[in-house]
């Protein structure tokens, strides 16, 4: 389960008490018949809260269960996510899916509206490789940055409702880009297409639900064919298209995959920017602590200059608990990318950010926390500069 910040600000409400009671009941249930009752009650209450915009009760219940009953927390989080991405009725099931693409560029990575012809071409690739035979798909006609994705369960549910309606009407959803927030600029980032898949009730959703399909074959075909279409939308970027999946599952997968992708991109980016081989890049990785280990950060320098010119963060996900394993993964990925000099610090670095721009500080070889800075003649590139 993805880690999330704690939200509790208010006194627990009656709704959050009932959510907790239902989630604990579901966890202790002894049969699928009893499960179905708990789940029915839970999903009705979750739906009421999502429609009423009362996200606080959901977050309060999650926060309390996170501390007291991790299994019930997982059950409740699953049910809330289902309430945000799944819609049933009129003899059909509708699922919001995300199509993540990892990208890096020395220039900026676009966010943009997508013309109908592009959506039709993407639709053909989805039908060809990713979706089951009877599925229909409606897109949101925009390539989103993480900053532009819905924030919180209420917003996610609101966008999902628009997508469900578009799918029911057999149309794509027009996204008004004027209402979207600005995107921060990073060397390496994720872009998302969002869509709604509609299938007749009880029918398969994805190609890998069919006897002759598999996730591996779908991923390979989508990465190549879908990736080629996405490449046309993201000029000047190096891409890796990930397998489309249910909204939250795809989002978590992208969060996980983006870490290794960012490290490898950093090596490629610095080689291009400084016109040097990867063997001239030096990397220093260190664990960063607040109360607990929060993330790893990797600082990069080039040639003989000790200045930290670029940095990559490796946020912790709950499954990654072993500090030594993360260090080994970071080192292996950088070595694969041709970086020979990878130093792992065992210093507990403080989780510090720049006071002016909020950019994370990165480790240098002496175990100091440093603001990344490019040489003066290169400062027109996307990085945290001021
Ligand atoms: Zn700064």
> What oligomerization state is this entry in?
single chain
Main beta sheet: 6 strands, antiparallel
Average residue pLDDT: 92
What would you report as the Rg, rounded to the nearest angstrom?
23 Å
> pLDDT under 50 segments (min length 5)?
5-9
Q: List cofactors, ions and other ligands.
A: zinc ion
The fraction of residues in strands falls at: 15-25%
Secondary structure: helix percent: 40-55%
The tally of helices reads 9
3D shape: globular
Distance between the termini: 36 Å
Number of strands: 15
Structural class estimated from helices and strands: alpha+beta
The number of domains is 3
- Helix and strand element order: HHHHEEEHEEHEHEEHEEEHEEEE
């Amino acid at each position: 389960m993805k880690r999330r910040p704690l939200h509790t600000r208010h006194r627990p409400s009656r709704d959050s008490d009932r959510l907790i009671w239902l989630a604990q009941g579901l966890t202790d249930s002894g049969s699928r018949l009893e499960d179905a009752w708990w789940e029915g009650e839970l999903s009705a209450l979750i739906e009421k809260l999502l429609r009423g915009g009362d996200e606080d009760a959901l977050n309060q219940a999650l926060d309390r269960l996170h501390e007291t009953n991790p299994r019930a927390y997982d059950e409740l989080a699953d049910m809330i996510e289902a309430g945000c991405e799944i819609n049933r009725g009129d003899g059909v099931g509708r699922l919001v899916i995300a199509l993540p693409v990892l990208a890096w560029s020395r220039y900026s990575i676009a966010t943009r509206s997508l013309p109908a012809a592009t959506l039709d071409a993407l639709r053909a690739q989805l039908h060809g490789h990713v979706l089951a035979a009877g599925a229909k798909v409606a897109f949101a006609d925009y390539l989103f940055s993480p900053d532009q994705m819905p924030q919180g369960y209420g917003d996610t549910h609101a966008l999902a409702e628009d997508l469900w309606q578009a799918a029911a009407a057999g149309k794509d959803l027009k996204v008004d880009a004027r209402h979207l927030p600005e995107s921060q600029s990073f060397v390496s980032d994720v872009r998302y297409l969002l869509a709604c898949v509609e299938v007749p009730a009880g029918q398969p959703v994805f190609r890998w639900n069919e006897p002759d399909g598999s996730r591996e074959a779908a991923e390979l075909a989508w990465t190549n064919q879908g990736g080629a279409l996405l490449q046309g939308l993201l000029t000047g970027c190096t891409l890796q298209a990930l397998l489309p999946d249910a909204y939250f599952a795809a989002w978590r997968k992208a969060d996980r995959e983006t870490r290794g992708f960012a490290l490898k991109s950093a090596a490629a980016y610095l080689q291009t920017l400084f016109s040097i081989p990867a063997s001239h890049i030096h990397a220093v990785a260190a664990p960063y602590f607040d109360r607990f280990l929060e993330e790893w950060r990797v600082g990069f320098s080039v040639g003989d200059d000790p200045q930290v010119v670029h940095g990559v963060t490796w946020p912790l996900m709950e499954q990654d608990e072993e500090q030594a394993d993360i260090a080994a993964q970071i080192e292996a990925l950088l070595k694969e990318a041709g970086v020979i000099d990878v130093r792992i610090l065992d210093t507990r670095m403080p989780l510090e950010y720049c006071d002016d721009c909020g950019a994370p500080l990165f480790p240098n070889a002496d175990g100091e926390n440093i603001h990344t800075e490019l040489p003066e003649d290169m400062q027109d590139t996307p990085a945290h500069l001021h």
